[in-house]
Specification:
64 strands; about 950 residues; 6 helices; six-stranded antiparallel β-sheet; mainly beta
Length: about 950
């Protein structure tokens, strides 16, 4: 029994020792490592087996590493040339080029039909050119400080530059007024209370007595106002003539019906007082005793005098006016509704005498020689009996005396209308050729504008003129973007206009030798003999950087002086609400004098104005005239100007959007559905120095709201890329994907300060020699910089066909990195590609890149990502992150390594590295094919597999099979 117990105890000990020896004995383990995409996060110790440190010319898609397709070269350009854009329409495709090295810095284009011969675009330079944006059959050229538009001329087979700014036409207007009257008078009768009932000679009552009775006032008003209104309609409205104050304005009508370059509102004054005038003569009053009441029949004869005028115009035209005829279809004249000086629906209250009547207007007055004395831009005051003489003279009647009494029409203060300015309605259109008929000749200075009869009777049904905004200013932009058939310009710099042609702001009246019986000889003349002549106008505009003073140097305006120290300027306008003062500066004898007008913002128009209420301004003597600002520009860095549909030249005020308070760096649109049931919830993204903003489009095409969606700041304006469903943009934190209003990083797995360096691995130069692709020193292809440094100056392009995003960059000295990062939208994996991309140009659905060519010639290759790929095998490199084989801290010895995938023998060469500390790496073995066997040597904790591939397009590398043995497992290492 004891022996059995002893044997049993010794068996247990033996069994225990055998188990210990079994653990100490090395044993083989076989593992499959599946290759993944390129990563840098997490760190090497924690990285999963199969993640790649380098995936050069290889991308992980469909579960395996595949060769990255090469773009197809389509043509070459010179090394000093730039491919600015691709102008593509249904009829042509042009490649727009700039030669920065040429002395004249010419801009040319290549037609897709012949890519060997370039044609120069006349009068266009690449100096200070920041961008060219195709828009229909036009090119919008953004320069530092201004913008130029190029229009494709199919007849000439070249581009034609539209002159910068709008043509400087100067239209001056005047009224030629005369008088229409009821020469025989109008008989009116009514029943009125009288004194002395039953008497054969009733008492003659005062002419105002009957107006004390309200019923009598209404009866008399109805009869007289009916006669007045009928006369006005017949002699003024139906004849398209003007009898009440009104404003006039003109503007260019563009090819799409938009209006730009509006003139200042011109205040036209046929009369400021009562018009028409009704002169009253009582005929008889008789008692009617049979009625039994103290009432009688009263009658009177009324003479209606109506001052009516026609618009006359003269034009000063630039020599290049017809260069705009493809853009400007007409110059349209607009007027407002009458600003009535009397209340048409009011009640007549009284009679007045001529001595109590005062009215200002463009009336003619006779001097002692019997000739009219009228000065341009002035109004005169008619009072008392002088008005009778003037009105009689208008009708060329002599010896005709008007009654003394005047029926005072219900008065109305129309000055509020002048400050509000009613809408403008179209009354006349001129083609650019027709304007030549209004250029002054020796025979006449002004010419009458023939307005079609009946237009004024339906004025409010005609086309209205929307107000202008900034179209006179010189607009420059840092960048542009086309979306929704509208041009978007952003980060705006605007240069103030000098001001309107001063003489055009005041209506003119003419001097004529017409006598009371003679035939009118209508000759308009500028009067430069007045006591005060203003030849300059200075306008003060307050902007963020301070006051800007603009100067109109081409104004010559004669100002009448009643007292020798004053002048009359009824209305003045400047198209900027920030203008606060205008100074008319001129001479009075040997003195420099000025008239200062305070300006205030207009409530309805985009400008500032002055209205004198027909008061006289005072001339002040000054020591010297003001000096205009040399720099008239101001910044609007947080503004986006959105054009009208299909018209990149017109930016309505409703299309101007303010985004944050920073400077806009770039604009990009997302054009596909962003969520279920929605399309374009945030179709426009704005990248500013204070974050990213999303703009929602309204039903009218403008933007209805602006919301911040990210605090991330764009690293540079070129690092923005639309990919249909979303927008990618580069930040200091990596590349962000913006979809709807959510943002996420797609570079978290590669965004690290650590960079892969080939010099850390023995004999890696041999691998680099095997990678010589494009004939340049390949060692640099695998010496990378940290991704944050790479992305700082990066640009991006999108390969629509394969859904690949490529990111390429330069160092701080502008030297191009010889590799690009590639992200697959299909697999969400990263890789890299050998490249020397300089920049890209998108022409959906293709993307072109300009790159150094493989043959290292003195040219640049323009390559397409939408063409047929090169079917020849392409060299690639794969280096794994440290492989731990499931035992991170155990020494291991790899005995066999076999690369797995779909490839031919010899298309994959293998190199194996080992390390015990993740820092120092040693060459373990290498093979010219995918098999690595009979590996001997010391054990390592970590291994890296490098594979040099030469795969064709249909082949792929999947992973590796590894046989390894654990070493020295008896202690913790």
């Amino acid at each position: 029994m004891k022996s059995c117990r002893f044997f049993s105890q010794h068996n247990n000990v033996l069994w225990f020792l055998l188990r210990i020896f079994a653990r100490l004995k090395p044993h083989s383990m076989v593992q499959e490592v599946k290759y993944n995409g390129q990563t840098a996060i997490p760190d090497d110790y924690s990285a999963p087996d199969g993640d790649l440190e380098v995936s050069l010319n290889l991308i992980h898609e469909d579960g395996a590493l595949k060769p990255i397709p090469e773009p197809k070269e389509i043509f070459r350009i010179g090394k000093t040339e730039r491919l600015l854009c691709i102008h593509k329409t249904a009829n042509f495709t042009h490649y727009i080029l700039a030669n920065d090295n040429n002395a004249s810095k010419i801009v040319s284009f290549l037609d897709e039909a012949d890519l060997t011969v370039s044609q120069t675009i006349s009068n266009l330079t690449s100096e200070n050119l920041t961008d060219i944006i195709p828009f229909g059959n036009m090119l919008v050229c953004l320069y530092t400080g201004y913008t130029i538009y190029l229009l494709w001329d199919g007849d000439q087979s070249n581009y034609k530059a539209i002159p910068q700014g709008w043509p400087d036409i100067k239209l001056t207007f005047g009224l030629r007024c005369d008088v229409e009257n009821t020469s025989e008078g109008i008989n009116l009768s009514w029943t009125t209370p009288i004194n002395g009932f039953g008497s054969t000679s009733p008492t003659i009552i005062d002419s105002n007595d009957f107006l004390d009775d309200s019923s009598m006032r209404k009866s008399f008003t109805d009869k007289l106002m009916g006669a007045v209104n009928d006369f006005v309609v017949k002699k003024a409205v139906n004849e398209s003539r003007f009898y009440q104050p009104f404003f006039l304005r003109y503007a260019f009508r563009l090819f799409d019906g938009s209006y730009v370059a509006h003139s200042a509102p011109v205040l036209m004054l046929p009369a400021t007082g009562m018009n028409p005038l009704v002169f009253n003569s009582l005929n008889s009053r008789s008692a009617n005793a049979n009625t039994g009441f103290d009432y009688g029949i009263c009658s009177e004869r009324d003479y209606i005098y109506l001052i009516v005028g026609d618009i006359w115009m003269k034009a000063e035209l630039p020599v290049n006016l017809l260069s705009y005829k493809e853009i400007i279809y007409s110059v349209d004249i607009f007027v407002t509704s009458p600003m009535y000086t009397y209340n048409q629906s009011g009640t007549i209250e009284r009679y007045i005498t001529r001595q109590n009547l005062q009215s200002k207007g463009l009336y003619s007055q006779l001097n002692v020689a019997g000739n009219y004395q009228l000065r341009p831009g002035l109004y005169d005051l008619l009072t008392g009996y002088g008005m009778r003489d003037t009105l009689v003279t208008y009708k060329t009647k002599t010896g005709y005396n008007l009654p003394n009494n005047i029926v005072e029409l219900p008065p109305r203060d129309f000055t509020k209308d002048i400050e509000d300015i009613p809408p403008f309605y179209l009354v006349k259109s001129f083609t650019l050729e027709e304007l030549a008929e209004y250029v002054p000749t020796q025979q006449q200075s002004f010419k009458k504008i023939e307005i079609e009869k009946g237009i004024l009777s339906s004025l409010t049904t005609r086309t209205t003129l929307p107000d202008d905004y900034d179209s006179h200013n010189t607009i420059a932009a840092k960048g542009g973007h086309v979306y929704n058939s509208r041009m978007h310009l952003y980060n705006i710099s605007s240069q103030l206009m000098d001001g309107y042609y001063g003489a055009s702001q005041l209506d003119k009246v003419f001097e004529t030798s017409e006598t009371t019986q003679g035939t009118p000889d209508y000759v308009f003349q500028d009067d430069t003999t007045s006591a005060f002549v203003a030849d300059k106008i200075f306008v003060y505009v307050k902007k963020d950087k301070g006051t800007i003073i603009v100067e109109e140097q081409k104004s010559v305006m004669g100002m009448d002086t009643w007292t020798g120290t004053g002048c009359k300027i009824p209305f003045f306008y400047y198209p900027d609400k920030d203008a606060y003062k205008a100074e008319f500066v001129g001479t009075n004898g040997n003195d420099i004098v000025k008239v200062e007008l305070p300006l205030k913002p207009h409530g309805l128009l985009n400008g500032a104005y002055y209205f004198s209420n027909f008061a006289e301004q005072t001339c002040i003597t000054i020591s010297e005239e003001p000096a205009a600002s040399t720099d008239k520009s101001y910044k609007r860095t947080n503004k986006i100007y959105v054009s009208e549909v299909e018209n990149p030249m017109y930016f309505p005020v409703l299309g101007i959007t303010t985004v944050g308070v920073g400077s806009i760096m770039s604009v990009c649109s997302a054009t596909t559905a962003l969520s279920q049931g929605q399309f374009g919830q945030f179709p426009l993204y704005v990248f500013s120095t204070d974050g990213v903003w999303a703009l929602a489009v309204s039903s009218t095409g403008t933007y209805s709201s602006c919301h911040p969606v990210s605090r991330d700041i764009l690293v540079n304006p070129d690092c923005v890329l639309p990919i249909d469903q979303a927008v990618l943009f580069g930040t200091a934190n990596g590349i962000m994907l913006l979809s709807g209003s959510s943002t996420q990083s797609i570079t978290d797995t590669i965004n690290t300060d650590k960079a892969f360096l080939a010099s850390n691995y023995p004999k890696f130069d041999v691998i680099c020699d095997m990678l010589q692709h494009s004939g340049s020193g390949a060692t640099n292809f695998v010496n990378m910089v940290p991704f944050p440094d790479f992305v700082t100056r990066s640009k991006m392009l999108y390969n629509y066909r394969h859904k690949h995003i490529l990111i390429f960059s330069t160092d701080k000295n502008g030297v191009i990195f010889p590799y690009s990062y590639l992200y697959s939208m299909k697999s969400k994996k990263w890789g890299t590609i050998q490249s020397y991309f300089q920049y890209s140009v998108t022409t959906y659905p293709d993307t072109l890149a300009v790159s150094m060519p493989n043959d290292k010639s003195n040219t640049l290759a323009v390559v397409s990502f939408n063409g047929v790929e090169n079917t020849a095998p392409k060299t690639g490199l794969m280096v794994t992150r440290p492989i731990k084989l499931g035992a991170s801290d155990t020494l291991k010895e790899i005995k066999t390594l076999i690369q797995r995938g779909f490839f031919a023998r010899g298309e994959v060469a293998t190199v194996l590295y080992g390390s015990r500390d993740l820092i120092n790496w040693h060459l373990v073995g290498s093979s010219t094919d995918n098999f690595l066997r009979h590996i001997h040597g010391t054990g390592y904790k970590y291994f890296r597999i490098a594979a040099i591939t030469n795969l064709t397009a249909e082949h792929s590398l999947h992973g590796a099979s590894i046989e390894a043995k654990a070493r020295h497992t008896d202690k913790l290492r």
